Amino acid sequence: MKQILMIGTGGTIASGKTAEGLMPELTSEQLLAFVPAVSALCRVECLQLLSLDSTNLGPAHWLQIAGAIRARYDRYDGFVISHGTDTMAYTAAALSYLIQDAAKPIILTGAQKPIDQDITDARSNVLQSVRYVCDDRASDVNFVFNGEVIAGTRGRKIRTKSFNAFSSVDYPHLAVIRENHIIHYITRSMNAPVTWYDALNDKVFVLKLI
Predict the structure, then answer these.
(1) Is-above-0.70 flag for pTM?
(2) What three-state secondary structure class fits 30?
């Protein structure tokens, strides 16, 4: 049975009701308690790295996540990162460049609704992410959302309320997960050793001209 590390960073998926509204407060262990079926797929250990709204995540946090994975890369068969949806695509893209040619899967997931609500996409997203990370053909940095596997450099959030919140830009989905089955469309073989980077330039300004 594979050994997986689940890394918590906060986001809506881990949020609960507080006097100030929804705030990230659940740990990775508490998230997994809502998805008992995970225990039949693999052994999971948890690391609560952050507990933030994803709009507050930036380059320093991306380096922190990449560093945590690097320090534990040899100990686990794959990684699942629970993350807020607003900046998940940015984190996935950053990790794709910080961690290149990873033969082990590094999967980001989140939810549009907190995991403790009756109607939520959180439990299915967590279960599907773990199912995919346990697949022998999975590799590299991707994210799993609403049964779709999207390359880490290609995802974009296009909806704020619907469960199918993400789309793959100018590139096909790598796989889809339907009825507990993974249907692969593109499988990438990672033959080169994993390459790690530990620096980002945050002096970037986006100027849109119309």
Answers:
(1) yes
(2) helix
